[in-house]
Design a protein that fits this description.
6 helices; 57% helix; 90 residues; mainly alpha; globular
């Protein structure tokens, strides 16, 4: 996914109501990753990613690494646009 596509995707998920799970799922799928692949890249596992995506893990321990893998600001990933900018990294 190029930077332009990522910006558009993020703009569509800027509300805090979307929740961390929806933001993670959307970015994971947009990057063509399975839950297991994302878990491996973030130093976690498929079960942890599943819990995040369904809302059972609201403050994952792997948040900073997960944000780095997905190329976004950890605060934005956790709380959404009203609280932080996504600060997309190249």
């Amino acid at each position: 996914m190029d930077k332009k596509q990522l910006v558009k995707l993020i703009q569509n998920h800027e509300s805090a109501e979307a929740g961390i799970g929806e933001r993670v799922r959307t970015l994971r799928m947009a990057n063509g990753l399975t839950q297991g692949q994302l878990g491996d890249l973030a130093g976690s596992n498929k079960a942890a990613i599943q819990k995040i995506e369904i809302g059972k893990s609201m403050r994952p321990r792997c948040l900073a690494t997960l944000a780095a893998v997905l190329g976004v600001n950890p605060a934005w990933l956790a709380w959404g646009a009203p609280y932080a900018s996504p600060e997309i990294r190249s």
